[in-house]
């Protein structure tokens, strides 16, 4: 590795960040001072003007409903408004009689006479008009007794009355509150701006570090394709150059080992997968065969030892043995079918055939079992619908769906087979009234040997393989299948193409 060239680092990161942060804070303080010097006074006066106009507007709203202010609730409301704003108010009629008075006293009464009747009351200084329109006039005045500065709003009303509102401009508490509000606003703005600038600058310097961290992580995962490409003249640039050099050397040294290790992992994973499948298969088959073998052995021993000489009992023992042997035979056949589907050559004999005819044939073959259970299988489709698939395998799917429906139908004894065609896709659904499948188990019903209701499955001789065969067949066709819970039962479905033969399925 090359020696670190310190001359390339003109300025360290610490130095740069220090200078930048000091400059930002200095500019922030200067900006705060400028704002305070030029805008605080204007902001304060504008706030007072807005406050006195707000009192006036609230007063106008009240007198719209109560022009003479005779309603005690309105007077109370107006008193609260004046008190809250720190304002005094007087309202007089055209005759000079007071209609409303809040804290006016003699001072405001004198000012009212001066403004209305032009009385010659001398002021400390002449009033200065701040705002004037057809509704009111706002002026700044200095009280002749206290020498305090006030804002006065005066104006005539539609009723012929006259209103004067006075608000102190030199209230200490008010001044402090307004100043604090102003500085808070300015301070928050400066903090936000400063924060954003610092975040932007920090990201500018941390982004290369994150890039280097990502490079390091990918190198730990034996990925040496990524390189650090920024041309920097500080510590980060030196570190990036060093990591690139280390990456090249490690890539050369580990290349052959990586390939061999990858192949080894594949071999181990494959062996573990096969071993796991073998263990699972043996366990499931052993479990499924245990019960019928035990029953056959028990009843066979009973026959051998002549436990009962009753011909009816002996016939019953024989029936049990035959039934359990049939269940084992059925399971073995299903396992062979499933094994062929999962580990066979994967070929599918695609042909065009009438799905209606196949369904009708399966229903006919199961009619005896349906009659025994007094189940009505509803299928009203008559017109042919042609699909592309392996007819033999699709017949197996329909058979398993209908067999499953017959085994799980409830006392309502309704099974419905329906076909829907849309956009070149045919959906075949088999519905039976009965108990819903728990939502958290819907995905598991396609796993071989999985049983939702083990007791019921055992009662009808099921082994949890039928739906696994359905899933394997549909996977071979690269088509969808599934199960949906309905309010009164469960619907199983699968889809096939009806327009053309898809590529890759031949």
Write the H/E string, N to C: HHEEHEEEEHHHEHHEEHEEHHEE
Provide the CATH top-level class of one domain: Alpha Beta
| Category by helix and strand content | alpha+beta
Supply the CATH architecture of one domain.
2-Layer Sandwich
Residue stretches low in confidence (pLDDT < 50, at least 5 long) are 1-6, 455-461, 502-506
Please count the helical segments: 11
Strand order of the largest sheet: 2-1-6-5-4-3
Radius of gyration: 47 Å
General shape: elongated
Determine the strand fraction and express it as a percent band: 15-25%
Q: Averaged pLDDT, please?
A: 75
Terminus-to-terminus distance: 59 Å
| Largest sheet geometry | 6 strands, antiparallel
The CATH topology of one domain, please? Beta-Lactamase
How much helix is in the residues?
A: 55-70%
Number of strands: 13
Secondary-structure blueprint of this entry?
Layout: H1 13-65, H2 72-85, E1 87-92, E2 98-102, H3 105-117, E3 128-132, E4 137-142, E5 149-156, E6 162-168, H4 172-220, H5 235-304, H6 311-343, E7 351-354, H7 355-365, H8 367-372, E8 376-378, E9 386-389, H9 391-408, E10 414-422, E11 425-433, H10 454-459, H11 466-477, E12 481-486, E13 489-497
Parallel strand pairs: 8-10
Antiparallel strand pairs: 1-2, 1-6, 3-4, 4-5, 5-6, 7-9, 10-11, 11-13, 12-13
Helix pairs in contact: 1-2, 1-4, 4-5, 5-6, 6-11, 7-9, 9-11
Commentary on this structure:
This protein is α+β, with helices and mostly antiparallel strands. Among the domains are: 15-178, Beta-Lactamase; 345-497, Heat Shock Protein 90 (2-Layer Sandwich), CATH 3.30.565. Helix content is 56%, strand content 16%. It is built from 11 helices and 13 strands. Strands 2-1-6-5-4-3 form a 6-stranded antiparallel sheet, with helices on both faces. The protein has a 5-stranded mixed sheet with strand order 8-10-11-13-12. The protein has a two-stranded antiparallel sheet with strand order 7-9. Helix 6 (311-343) runs parallel beside helix 11 and helix 7 crosses helix 9 (391-408). The longest helix has 70 residues, at 235-304. The chain is elongated and about 130 Å long. The model is unreliable at 1-6, 455-461 and 502-506 (pLDDT under 50).
């Amino acid at each position: 590795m090359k020696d670190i060239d310190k001359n390339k680092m003109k300025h360290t990161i610490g130095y740069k960040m220090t200078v930048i942060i000091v400059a930002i804070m200095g500019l922030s303080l200067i900006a705060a001072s400028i704002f305070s010097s030029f805008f605080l006074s204007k902001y304060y006066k504008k706030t007072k003007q807005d406050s006195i106009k707000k009192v006036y507007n609230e007063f106008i709203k009240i007198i719209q409903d109560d022009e003479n202010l005779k309603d005690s609730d309105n007077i109370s409301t107006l008193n609260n408004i004046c008190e809250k704003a720190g304002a005094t108010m007087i309202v007089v009629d055209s005759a000079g009689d007071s209609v409303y008075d809040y804290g006016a006293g003699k001072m405001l009464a004198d000012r009212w006479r001066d403004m209305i009747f032009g009385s010659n009351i001398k002021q400390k200084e002449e009033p200065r008009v701040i705002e004037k329109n057809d509704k009111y006039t706002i002026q700044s005045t200095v009280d002749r007794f206290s020498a305090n500065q006030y804002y006065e709003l005066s104006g005539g009303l539609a009723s012929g009355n006259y209103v004067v509102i006075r608000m102190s401009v030199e209230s200490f508490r008010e001044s402090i509150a307004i100043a604090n509000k102003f500085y808070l606003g300015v301070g928050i703005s400066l903090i936000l701006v400063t924060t954003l600038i610092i975040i932007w600058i920090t990201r500018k310097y941390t982004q290369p570090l994150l890039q280097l961290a990502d490079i390091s992580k990918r190198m730990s995962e034996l990925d040496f394709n990524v390189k650090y490409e920024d041309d920097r003249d500080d510590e980060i640039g030196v570190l990036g150059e060093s990591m690139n050099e280390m990456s090249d050397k490690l890539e050369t040294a580990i290349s052959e080992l990586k390939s061999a290790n990858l192949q080894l992992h594949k071999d181990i994973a494959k062996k573990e997968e096969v071993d796991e499948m073998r263990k699972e298969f043996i366990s499931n088959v052993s479990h499924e065969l245990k019960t019928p073998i035990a029953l056959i052995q028990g009843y066979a021993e009973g026959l051998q030892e002549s436990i009962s000489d009753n011909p009816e009992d002996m016939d019953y023992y024989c029936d049990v043995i035959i039934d359990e042997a049939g269940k084992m035979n059925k399971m073995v056949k299903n396992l062979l079918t499933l094994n062929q589907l999962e580990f066979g050559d994967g070929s599918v004999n695609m042909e065009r055939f009438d799905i209606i005819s196949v369904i009708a044939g399966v229903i006919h073959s199961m009619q005896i079992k349906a009659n025994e259970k007094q189940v009505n299988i509803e299928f009203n489709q008559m017109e042919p619908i042609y699909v592309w698939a392996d007819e033999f395998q699709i017949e197996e799917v329909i058979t398993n769906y209908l067999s499953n429906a017959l085994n799980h139908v409830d006392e309502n004894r309704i099974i419905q087979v329906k076909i829907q065609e849309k956009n070149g896709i045919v959906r075949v659904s088999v519905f039976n009234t009965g108990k819903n499948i728990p939502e958290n188990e819907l995905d598991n019903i396609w796993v071989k040997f999985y049983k939702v209701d083990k007791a019921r499955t055992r009662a009808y001789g099921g082994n949890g393989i039928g739906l696994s065969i359905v899933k394997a067949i549909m996977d071979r066709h690269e088509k969808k299948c599934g199960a949906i819970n309905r309010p009164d039962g469960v619907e199983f479905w699968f889809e096939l193409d009806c327009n053309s033969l898809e590529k890759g399925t031949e």
